[in-house]
Specification:
Elements lengths: L1 H10 L2 H27 L7 H9 L9 H18 L12 H17 L2 H18 L5 H82 L5 H29 L16 H10 L4 E7 L6 H21 L5 E7 L2 E8 L15 H11 L3 E6 L5 E8 L10 E4 L5
């Protein structure tokens, strides 16, 4: 039993303890008000518990709605003072329990209610006490002026506590914002460090590849025209990769700029992607039906990345195989990339296995889907379906079929 009580005490927070204290206080006040009510006022025994409840139980609203609790307590106090006669040996218009409850509720109103409500509650309570409390002559004058001053001290103390609590909360909020700013600054510094590392390692070596590819025909004797074209293709591909790396470095170095705010490929950029693949030696032909310029940015970016990954997978896993690409822009955007069986052994891949999953994630983010699998002739086929909404094929839609380059 003691262990259960101890566990319950640990689970209770400060608010629960406060609510329990308020309930206990209300019960104590009620236990005092009910048995002593007949000593202060001429009340029938049957009415005593109800009148005592109006004197003690409004304090239960001290946290939930102190203004409502104060209204009930003040209204019942005025009604008791005017409608219920008090005993000859009692000069107070209502019980001391009701005075305690009213002052406690007025303090709670000062802590939580709007300033206008606090002023009304203070004025009404001062008027109630100042006009109903006993006294004649100087004593009455002292009651009229004394109660407002005493209650003003209660209200001012409540407002002081309130402002102290608010200032403390504001200080905590400022500290949290400062902590978030420090964390953000640390993230930006880490991004800058990653950008420096990428620049020093990847961009540096890519730049060397570009330089070597461009100068190889001049450094190596007996370079054939075909080899010169191959070097030019390697240099163009390396420059394209270097440009993308520089764009990524710009995002990493930006101060809080989100990646989606950086320049991203559009749907019409797939033409440059196909040209680059052809320059790199990929045997590729493509057809496009519809206007690529009418495709939304998100769908266009998904189209570009899926096509890029499909061509990359074809060149890695089926080198020398012809690749056919078909893009249809109608009610929906359809992409089909098919490659035949490889004409040469596949290139060794150090790490990977996430290409198809990445394409599916791209399509899912745009609201579409991707299917990929082997084709009947031993090659591989990727199909993507991406929604376009209200985008339709325009009258000036182009249909391009380029001959296969061997």
């Amino acid at each position: 039993m003691k262990e259960k009580t101890r566990d319950l005490a640990k689970r209770m927070d400060a608010r629960s303890w406060f609510d329990a204290s308020v309930v206990l206080t209300a019960l104590i006040l009620y236990a005092v008000a009910w048995p002593t009510l007949h000593l202060t006022h001429a009340v029938s025994p049957g009415a005593q518990p109800f009148i005592a409840a109006f004197a003690a139980f409004p304090i239960l609203l001290v946290r939930i709605n102190p203004a409502l609790g104060w209204s009930i307590s003040a209204g019942s106090a005025l009604l008791i003072a005017l409608a219920i006669p008090h005993q000859p040996n009692n000069d107070l218009p209502f019980q001391v329990v009701q005075v305690i409850a009213l002052i406690a509720l007025l303090f709670a109103v000062g802590l939580r209610a709007p300033v206008q409500t606090v002023a009304i509650a203070w004025g009404a309570t001062s008027l109630l006490f100042g006009t109903t409390m006993p006294g004649e002559g100087d004593a009455f004058a002292n009651a009229v002026w004394g109660w407002p001053i005493a209650l003003a001290a209660v209200v001012l103390f409540a407002l002081l506590v309130r402002w102290l609590v608010l200032s403390r909360r504001e200080l905590v909020r400022q500290e949290e914002e400062n902590e978030l700013e420090r964390a953000r600054r640390a993230i930006l510094e880490e991004k800058a460090r990653i950008a420096r590392d990428l620049h020093d390692v990847v961009a540096h070596h890519m730049s060397l590849v570009v330089v070597q590819a461009q100068t190889a025909p001049y450094r190596v004797e007996g370079v054939t025209p075909a080899a010169r074209a191959e070097f030019e293709s390697i240099g163009a591909t390396a420059r394209e990769a270097l440009n993308e790396i520089r764009g990524m470095l710009g995002v990493l170095r930006s101060d809080g700029q989100l990646p989606e705010h950086a320049p991203q490929p559009k749907a019409e950029d797939v033409l440059a992607l196909f040209d680059g693949a052809r320059r790199a030696g990929v045997t590729i032909d493509w057809t496009i039906e519809g206007d690529l310029r009418s495709i939304p940015e998100t769908t266009g970016l998904a189209l570009y990345r899926i096509a890029q990954e499909s061509l990359s997978n074809a060149s890695r896993h089926a080198p020398g195989a012809p690749v056919r690409v078909a893009i249809v822009c109608g009610l929906e955007l359809h992409l089909r990339v098919v490659n035949g069986p490889g004409a040469a052994p596949a290139r060794p891949v150090g790490n990977g296995g996430h290409g198809i999953a990445g394409m599916r994630a791209r399509a899912l983010a745009a609201g579409g889907e991707v299917t990929a699998g082997p084709s009947d002739d031993g090659g591989f086929e990727v199909q993507a379906r991406l929604p376009l909404g209200a985008v339709l094929a325009t009258p000036d839609a182009v249909s391009v079929a380029t001959p296969t380059v061997q």
